[in-house]
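Shipment paperwork, digital attachment
Item: protein structure file
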Amino acid sequence: MATYPWEDFAPQPSAIDNIGDTLKQYWQKINPVTQAKSLVSGVANPSQTVKGYGQQNDELLQRAKDAFKSGNHAEGVRHSLMYLLNGIPGVGSALDEAGNKAGTGDYKGAVADTAP
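Attachment content:
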């Protein structure tokens, strides 16, 4: 329930707005300029690239451990699978982030993260 009565009548985004937001988020992921900058940065700083990849793996492993400890086994399994998929650099962490967004109701962001 809303704090103020008028909040119940706030305009909701239309389907067109949702599609537009999803496409904007998707474009940010596939923009060739952004991709080229990332590639150049990765080649220019290989030690930072490897370090970042290791940190992604550590974060996924820690999320899995935390989920299992809290009794949320489904989430723990999901994070564990993403940890294993991260053997292909960036795949597991990208899918894990999409899963986190879907879990919080950000379906537009989840779709944008998983679209090829």
